[in-house]
Amino acid sequence: MGEAPAFFVDELQKGFANGFDVKSKGGETSVAYCNRTYVIGGACEESALSIGVRILDQSSGEWINPTVLGTKPKPSKGHSAVLLGEDRILITKNGSSADDFAWFLEVDTQYVRQQKKILGTEVVAWSKGVSGCSEKPVVISGPSGVGKGTLISMLMKEYPSMFGFSVSHTTRAARAMEKDGVHYHFIERSIMEKELEDGKFLEFASVHGNLYGTSVEAVELVADDGKRCILDIDVQGARSVRASSLEAIFIFVCPPSMEELEKRLRARGTETEEQVLKRLRNAKTEIDLGQSSGIFDHMLYNDNLEDCYQSLKELLGLDGTVTAAPKSATKVVDLPMDHSLTKIDNKIIINSRTPELEKASTNMIVLDVSSLKGGAPGRTRGLDIHTMDSFLDGLSGITH
Ligand SMILES: Nc1nc2c(ncn2[C@@H]2O[C@H](COP(=O)(O)OP(=O)(O)O)[C@@H](O)[C@H]2O)c(=O)[nH]1
Ligand SMILES: Nc1ncnc2c1ncn2[C@@H]1O[C@H](COP(=O)(O)OP(=O)(O)O)[C@@H](O)[C@H]1O
Question: Which parts of the sequence belong to the Guanylate kinase-like domain (predicted)?
Fold first, then answer.
């Protein structure tokens, strides 16, 4: 990300001008960049439950109501804003809890540019800021009946605190043993189509005549829980995830033969004859794609189940000595109710505006934004939060 000089939000009134500026007035904050002014706050067009965004095109003098994607922040008792790296605005909410105070409004990231092209409208996208990073999700694909579900169940059973399953949405009917919200979110096609339009999905595909999709929330919930996310999705879905901002490990599971695949599918006994035949027809194409598309980092052959499971564990670095992944400790930070932001390189200083606290370093918080990961439509991870005192101690190597 590019650099911007240090400034205080309310310093604009003193004539600050460096390609962008920030003003704060009556619950609205405006951030100007190039020939656009982003006005954040006030009423949201769609819902009074979230912070609104409008854009003023300075060259034409026209107001634009952009399509707003991503999870929107709830309104707060005011907020401050600062432009980061020319593609997103950091918004810090007054009087919010530590897990809800930092939000990013993406205005020109790769995701936003892509969505502008797809939707043909002006687009901005919200993303919630989260401290710490999650491990790369694991995408597992392979033809129906190859044993993906079986392998994933074994992994989740052996490492329950390490892995979490991304619960997909599907329009197919639930099987006898399947539970809504556990194996899938079973959903009507018309509702899923509407949610797809609303940008709630990271990827989706039509598989064996039904819609399947991974919601952004499904993956983020697992990461929020401090676990590594496993996605069981088809090859088309894997291709979409490859093209997305989600960095993942891609594994394709092959059957020992088509005959064995057919035997397993029939023995599972969950599909009608017609569905079995459809899955077998699709299996050939999927295996060809899996082997030739360059999407996958690893191939697994599920002949003997135990051997295949051992190979899966090895490529995930689980050599038998690893237990639960340590959850990163959540830092508790006391956020000043009313504050200003100062940007110094990749550090954002949050300072209280309450006169008696303004000068005290104990009341300053430093946000390190040098290692941000992810972003809209999911979370922006990697925010590093310090009190000013602990930050200064870190710089000088002093420990108390
Ligand atoms: N693209 C995509 N594919 C999915 C998703 N969820 C499941 N699938 C794939 O849909 C296909 C059918 O899944 P399912 O109906 O559970 O049948 P099964 O694979 O025979 O157990 C499999 O290839 C899954 O990997 C999803 O969210 N997105
Ligand atoms: N290596 C294997 N050898 C024999 N049967 C297997 C093996 N792996 C899985 N199975 C069985 O094959 C069937 C299909 O497996 P499943 O995990 O449901 O496949 P998928 O999720 O890929 O559709 C299940 O009945 C499962 O018990």
Answer: 135-317
What residues does 41 pair with on adjacent strands? 28
Catalytic residue among 172, 264, 268, 353: 268
Atom 27 of ligand 2, residue of closest alpha carbon: 150
- Over residues 292-301, the pLDDT tens digits come to 989 999 999 9
Which tokens sit at 269? 């006994």
Is pLDDT at 192 greater than 80 in this prediction?
Answer: yes
Which residue has the least CA distance to atom 15 on ligand 1? Answer: 172
| Nearest alpha-carbon partner for 142 in 300, 315, 311 | 300
Q: Tell me the ligand closest to 255's alpha carbon.
A: 2
Preceding omega of 256 cis (within 30 degrees of 0):
no
Instruction: List the domain boundaries for the chain.
Output: 6-133+331-399, 138-315
Mean pLDDT across the chain: 85
CA 171 to chain centre: 23
Question: Active site includes 175?
Answer: yes
Of these residues, 113, 175, 189, 281, which one is catalytic?
175
pTM metric for this prediction: 0.78
Ligand 1 neighbour 212 (Cβ under 6 A): yes
Q: Domain 138-315 classified CATH 3.40.50.300?
A: yes
In angstroms, rounded to a whole number, what is the distance separating the alpha carbons of residues 387 and 149?
45
- Ligand 2 centroid distance, CA of 241 (Å): 25
pLDDT of residue 77: 78
Residues 6 or more apart from 200 whose CB is under 8 A from it? 215, 216, 217, 377
Number of residues written out for the chain? 400
Q: Which of 88, 279, 379, 381 is catalytic?
A: 279
- Nearest ligand atom owner, CA of 279: 1
pLDDT of residue 319 exceeding 80, the answer is: no
